[in-house]
Amino acid sequence: MIKVTLLVLLVLVTVSSTYGKYIPKSGKRIPQTLSRGWGDQLIWAQTYEEALYWSRSRNKPLMAIFHLEDCPHSQALKKVISEDNEIQKILDEDFIILNLVYETTDKHLSPDGQYVPRIIFVDPSMTVRADINGRYSNRMYAYEPSDLKLLMTNMKKAKKLLKSEL
After folding, report:
1. Which of 72, 81, 113, 165 is most buried by a 10 A CB count?
2. Helices and strands in the chain, H and E counts
3. Is the pTM higher than 0.85?
């Protein structure tokens, strides 16, 4: 009788440990968002293909941000964009947004090279707006924290071109 009880207890312990939920030592984890810190309250597309679909179906321009997590230039730009309420509001209301830490297979998104950070605008007709660029001739789509006004101007240009061309 004791052997049977111990055997049943051992089976119950084994089964219950198999179905138990893993809880990290640091406690409950906060789920990662697609924002990667660029604006946690915004809705971000997960993939370039999804962003193109949303852009076309909602008739909004796409703003794609290419960056790296360990790049100091990317981190500095992320900080100023995520803290600027006006940019966050425009992104929320008027754009489909995507941030990528990897390159896409669409070579149109790297017209002058694969550097970070770079911001590319795409209109709902899936045309990459090569005419909307930053102030640097060797990195045409690069922005620095001091270029926030230019970025805002380019965002407004992307919205204006949307209305005038489509």
Report:
1. 81
2. 5, 3
3. no
Cβ-based neighbours of 62, under 8 Å, separated by 6 or more: 45, 51, 52, 54, 55, 95, 96, 97, 98, 121, 122, 123, 124
Residue 145 phi, psi (nearest 5): -55, -30
| Distance set, CA 132 to CA 16, 22, 64, 121 (Å) | 59, 48, 12, 7
Which residues 6+ apart lie within 8 Å of 55 measured at CB?
A: 61, 62, 96, 122, 123, 124, 126
Q: How far apart are CA 94 and CA 64, in angstroms?
A: 14
Residue 9: pLDDT over 80: no
Residue 118, beta-bridge partner list: 66
Cα(116)–Cα(67) distance, integer angstroms? 5
* Contact (CB, 8 A) for 136 and 142: yes
